[in-house]
Design goal:
heterodimer; A: about 725 residues; Calcium-transporting ATPase, cytoplasmic transduction domain A; Rossmann fold; six-stranded antiparallel beta sheet; 22 strands; about 15% strand; elongated; B: about 240 residues; mainly alpha; 8 helices; about 75% helix
């Protein structure tokens, strides 16, 4: 769940410290809370849009303010242009005209003050009451000073007027803040798209009656009817009909899977063809998709190093800017009069509005997190993204990562006197008692061959001997049958013929796993297996090598098998490693070469994942709880890892570019403004332009020029 | 100035281009009007907003030209340079819309985010004449090659008033066609529009040539202050 912090009611970001006493996220706040002026404005616009037929009052007010500002600017230009400005030798007619223009400026700036100045003042005042000092407050003070000064000039009929400065600032600040808030909302849009896949209302069946209830009102045990083409709202168990479901959103599996009654169903997956009833197993908040959205949301709150840096700068910013503005204002006031002082101070505040800096990093990172989630890649934090972009070495766990985790029977050998079909049938019945990949492979092999009497089990009392194999009792004859490793055979006192023993040794030396089956004191059959490499393993390795990243594999297997893998993939393989050894190997590599990414299934290689610079868990669509990995690929496609790395690099490029830009812009801008060479109106314009630039670039983070990857992956269609 | 009619005709014929670009806007503006009269009112207010923006940026351009001229007195004539630039731009724009200049298509990524559009769309759909006016006001700011070309022309006039007049005339020229399209839908066939566009291009190019010639003349006359007198003030002695 989201940690209990107070959040903005518009952009769902944590509120700044001063509003910490506000109600928690998710709770219904009596008074809406907003993190900034922009969100307040944007929320007002949205609210009005919701009300049927109501005019977009706020936007129209903004538009009319723009109109008035243009008028004020025109009069000001006329004042500047005609050379009557402060010209003591001007004719009476010119004087009168100048007076008229001054008053017209005052007249046209009043609506702007009313429409845009008032909300800004209200916002700054509320912040101040909570003990928060913001740049908005400085702006309000500056603008007020400029207006008062100009009004006095207009009434006196002499001196400069700065109505246009105040108007442009108000328009630009409002526009800028609104854009910023919209940008923040947009950054979360990818996440919302995911969340909106879950239906808001569901058909609950209770006591034979169907009723429409909110999804969030479901509790475990509730039964829900889901029609074909609808999303399954909760994690549950299938009842009633069999169906095909599309679990792509959750697991990344692009092929539909068949589900029969009793099978588990994942919340968020699409019911393809049957009308089904789902019995909820978990609450609505724990549905697979809800967990994903929640994980990304939490990732958004976890700040990366770049963001912390930006925050640190921004925190130091306010006092620095306050000092700079006061110093510039004081100096210019002393040298060229109070008006010059006000203008210089205002320009400093405006140019340094920390918009660019405050928005540069988080917007880019949030957009990236949401985008990645839509591609079934979960970054646990912005930092994981940063770290993945930096890697120099990538280590793959073997089983379940480079290989599919399943095996294939490539050889079945039995003693000449026995019936191979019967031996295989016994092996099959024993294999049913275990979930080991090799047992699965034997089952698959048995299904491929015609066996006598496939339905009736020939073996009973099957039980598993962990780490060794399976044993059972023949139904006819009561003999004990054992299926498993050589160690199990030794343990059960079974001995093999020299022929089988030699075959087994040869297979082991060739790097193939084997299983033996025997009864009545003798080993009678030998299964030889081959592990399946993932289809994309070679391509993935080649991708990383091309980019100068060192690739190697770590495995707990013995040397011969490791050598076989090394030959197949053409990468160094370190064999015979226990989980702790893997972690040590990762540490050694990171000291010798640089940041290491460890890719594994996230279960038995957790220590290595934790020891690495960034851990990547593969195929954890249904199991987001694998916390040891900073990055979770929800499906098993290793190519997604290439995409993620590339994506992380592109994101970090954007973040760095944004940071540099924001920093350089602020330094140059403040220096210019403090020297009094920057008109505050220009500064306001620059402020909007700079934040537009940054927001744009942040929201386009990771955009790729129609890469092949985009086409290969089915995108999630809403609905 | 002798080329006022040319500006108006350039705007009028050039608006066949506007219809292509901004036709959607005027239709959106009229979409909610219950009657033709109401629609026409909305269209007029919308157009007024647009022309207001043109006049304003014309004033700004004229003012900028005026300042540039004033600042560069004694050096090379800024007005002449501006006129040359404006002439070049007009000719370039004319050739582009006539299809005689190479086109470059800018492709943008699909996820392109345009915050300005958000603001724009909200206002465009808003009921009430004020919303229509604001929509027009904002439309005037939309980037448009033709507007830029005439803006350069306005700057080269070297006076705020002349700049305002230039852009006002240009805007007024664009009004009739946009009003018609907005209230009557698309009665102009594509072929007709293309022919008009070609004709407009010729007018724009002619304007460009005249401006170029004027610039060349200024340049030939050498640098001299060219501040037009304010119509409200008595003439200043030079």
């Amino acid at each position: 769940m989201i940690s209990p912090v107070a959040c903005c009611d518009y952009c769902a970001l944590p509120l700044p410290g001063w509003a910490g006493r506000a109600p928690r996220c998710g709770g219904v706040a009596p008074v809406p809370q907003y993190c900034c002026f922009g969100c307040r404005f944007a929320a007002a616009v949205t609210r009005e849009r919701g009300a049927a037929g109501a005019a977009h009052l706020k936007l129209v007010q903004l538009g009319l303010s723009i109109f008035c500002t243009m008028n004020v600017l025109a009069f000001t230009m006329a004042l500047w242009g005609e050379g009557v400005y402060g010209d003591p030798a001007a004719t009476p007619a010119a004087q009168a005209l100048a007076d008229l223009f001054r008053y017209l400026g005052l007249l046209f700036s009043l609506p702007v003050l009313f429409f845009l100045g008032r909300p800004l003042v209200v916002d700054a005042w509320q912040t101040l009451r909570h003990g928060g000092l913001t740049t908005d407050l400085l702006l309000v003070c500056g603008v007020a000073a400029a207006f008062i000064f100009s009004t006095i000039s207009a009434i006196r009929g002499a001196g400069d007027v700065y109505f246009e400065v105040g108007c442009v600032i108000l328009v630009m600040v409002t526009l800028g803040r609104w854009l910023e808030a919209t940008g923040r909302l947009k950054a979360g849009a990818h996440l919302d798209e995911l969340q909106q896949l879950l239906p808001e209302r569901v058909r609950r069946i209770r006591g034979g009656v169907e009723e429409s209830v909110l999804r969030t009102a479901l509790v475990p045990g509730d039964r829900v009817r889901v029609l074909p083409g609808e999303r399954i709202p909760i994690d549950g168990r299938l009842q009633g009909n069999s169906t095909w479901v599309d679990e792509c959103v959750v697991t990344g599996e692009s092929w539909p899977v068949a589900r029969t009654p009793g099978d588990p169903l994942l919340g968020g997956s699409l019911n393809l063809d049957g009308e089904i009833v789902v019995e909820a197993v978990l609450g609505p908040a724990e549905a697979a998709l809800a967990r994903l959205v929640d994980a990304v949301r939490r990732a958004r709150l976890a700040k990366g190093r770049h963001q912390l840096l930006a925050d640190r700068i921004a925190a130091a910013f306010f006092p620095v800017i306050l000092t700079a503005a006061a110093a510039a204002g004081g100096f210019h006031a002393w040298r060229s009069g109070p008006a010059a002082g006000i203008l210089a101070g205002l320009a400093v505040v405006l140019i340094s509005c920390p918009c660019a800096l405050g928005v540069a990093v988080p917007l880019a990172v949030w957009t990236a997190l949401g985008r990645a989630a839509r591609r079934q890649v979960l970054f646990r934090s912005g930092e994981a993204l940063e770290r993945l972009a930096e890697i120099r070495v990538i280590c793959f766990d073997k089983t379940g990562t480079l290989t599919t985790g399943t095996a294939q029977v490539v050889g079945f050998d039995c003693e000449p006197g026995d019936d191979p079909a019967l031996t295989l049938a016994w092996a099959r019945d024993l294999a049913r008692g275990s979930l080991h990949p090799l047992s699965r492979a034997i089952l698959a092999e048995a299904e491929r061959r015609p066996l006598s009497n496939p339905a009736t089990p020939l073996v009973e009392a099957v039980h598993c001997r962990p780490g060794l194999g399976v044993v059972g009792r023949q139904r006819a004859g009561g003999q004990t049958v054992a299926l498993g490793s050589q160690a199990l055979m030794d343990h059960a006192g079974l001995t093999g013929t020299p022929r089988l023993a030699a075959a087994a040794r040869a297979a082991v030396d060739a790097g193939c796993p084997v299983a033996l089956i025997g009864w009545q004191g003798q080993i009678r059959g030998l299964f030889t297996f081959q592990e399946e490499l993932r289809a994309s393993a070679r391509e993935t390795i080649a991708w990383f090598r091309q980019r100068g990243i060192e690739v190697l594999a770590l495995t707990g297997d013995q040397a011969p098998r490791a050598a076989k893998l090394a030959a197949e993939l053409g990468i160094p393989v370190r064999s015979g490693l226990l989980p702790e050894d893997k972690a040590a190997a990762v540490q050694e590599l990171s000291q010798r070469v640089g940041p290491v990414a460890m890719v594994g299934d996230g279960v038995n290689d957790a220590p290595a994942l934790a020891a690495s610079h960034v851990g990547v868990a593969v195929g954890c669509g249904t199991d987001l709880a694998r916390e040891s990995a900073g990055v979770c690929l929800m499906n098993n496609d290793l190519l997604r890892l290439c995409w993620s790395t590339d994506f992380a690099r592109r994101t970090m490029r954007t973040v760095r570019r944004n940071l540099y830009f924001a920093f350089a812009y602020n330094v140059v801008g403040v220096a210019l403004a403090a020297s009094g060479r920057l008109n505050p109106a220009t500064a306001a314009l620059l402020m909007v332009a700079s934040s537009l630039l940054v927001i744009r670039s942040a929201l386009q983070v990771g955009d790729e020029p129609a890469a092949a990857e985009t086409r290969r992956q089915p995108m999630i269609a809403p609905g | 100035m002798t080329d006022w009619p040319l500006i108006f005709i350039g705007g009028f014929l050039g608006s066949s281009h506007c219809v292509g670009m901004c036709g959607g806007f005027v239709l959106a503006i009229g979409a909610q009007a219950p009657s033709l009269a109401a629609n026409l009112r909305r269209q007029t207010v919308y157009t007024a907003g647009r022309v207001f923006t043109y006049i304003f940026i014309g004033a700004a351009a004229g003012y900028a030209g005026q300042r540039a001229t004033a600042v560069t007195v004694g050096a090379i004539s800024a007005q002449a340079l501006l006129a040359l630039v404006a002439g070049g731009l007009l000719i370039w724009q004319g050739m582009k819309s006539a299809g005689w200049a190479p086109h470059r298509f800018v492709t943008r990524s699909t996820s392109h985010f345009c915050p300005e559009q958000l603001l724009f769309r909200s206002v465009l759909r808003g009921p009430g004449l004020a919303a229509a006016f604001v929509a027009g006001l904002l439309t005037g700011w939309l980037p448009c090659g033709l507007v830029y070309a005439y803006l350069a022309f306005a700057a080269s006039s070297g006076s705020m008033l002349a700049g305002m007049a230039t852009m006002g005339l240009f805007g007024a020229g664009t009004a009739p066609l946009m009003l018609l399209v907005g209230s009557g839908g698309s009665w102009l066939s594509l072929a007709m529009r293309r022919r008009m566009l070609r004709l407009a291009a010729v007018f724009v190019i002619v304007s460009g040539c005249i401006t170029l010639a004027r610039g060349a003349t200024f340049l030939g006359q050498g640098a001299q202050p060219h501040l037009p007198a304010c119509p409200f003030c008595p003439a200043k002695s030079p």
